[in-house]
Amino acid sequence: MSDQQAAAEVVPLNAIFSTDFVAILVPVTTANTMDEVAAAVAYHSEGRRVRALPYPKVVIHQGKKLPGHMTVAQANIKPLDHVAVEYEIPAGAAA
């Protein structure tokens, strides 16, 4: 286990996935990447209340799309911040 993983702190996030109407509280850590956050949020909605699509997911925090490799700590996301996770659908692709 690396020092970064050992020092990771839990950060509960208010989150919504794509067209879901249910906001959820998702526990992530400061060491999680945005790709991992997107997967954690999608897990509760995708294929249940939201149709699964074959596109990558992106985390949006304070109106900005965050790169998948960025960690929660690097993005300066704080406990109970709101994030949205959306599909990144290429222009011209069918949704």
From TrEMBL:
Keyword presence, Oxidoreductase: yes
Alphabetical list of InterPro entries matching this protein: TmoB-like_sf, Toluene_mOase_B
UniProt keyword Magnesium present: no
Pfam family, one: TmoB
GO molecular function, one term: monooxygenase activity
CDD domains (UniProt xref): Ubl_TmoB (cd17042)
Keyword list, A-Z: Monooxygenase, Oxidoreductase
Origin superkingdom: Bacteria
Protein's UniProt name: Toluene monooxygenase
Organism for this UniProt entry: Bordetella genomosp. 12
Organism lineage: Bacteria, Pseudomonadati, Pseudomonadota, Betaproteobacteria, Burkholderiales
